[in-house]
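input
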Amino acid sequence: MKQLLAVGSLISMPFVLGAKNLIKKRVDKGIKVDAGKDRFGQEISLLEGDKFYCKVSTSDTDGDLYIFESTRDKKGGTSFHYHYDQDEWWYIIEGEFLFKVGDETFTAKAGDSVFGPRMVPHAFSKTSEGIAKMLIGFQPAGKMEEYFKKISAGVTKNMSEEERNNLRKEHGLVAVGPALNYLKK
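output
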């Protein structure tokens, strides 16, 4: 009986000691982020002129959701890639984009949305002139917000393609093909 109690105490000890770490952190009030503004006042810059404005942070939802507004000036877009665990959703606010999700291709304009399920390769490319904007959401958030912040900070600037692929994998995505190059300008 003493051995059983001792084993029970040993098993429960990490849970008692680590209970503080098990408590999830989420915001507990409403949040408003103004148009053209970032949730934290620090937009992310990447993808040749793309600006990301966080609207719902990974930290707001304890990793359940990440939503940002992408504002693009130049034509072009992402490489063909997939996410291990995240579904991705795009809602076009302004301009026009070409999407490839799996074997399907979509042209999307203001008011349209496109869904990319996890593990399905996808890419998008801005095709219209002038500024284009879209909301992008990841569910669950995974490490995408962290990944974009690293790119914005310049960590990939001097990396080899192998190092970039490793960074992608660390953040839950895998590049499987080129960008929709025929639209890049």
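quick obs: Confidence is low (pLDDT under 50) at residues 13-17.
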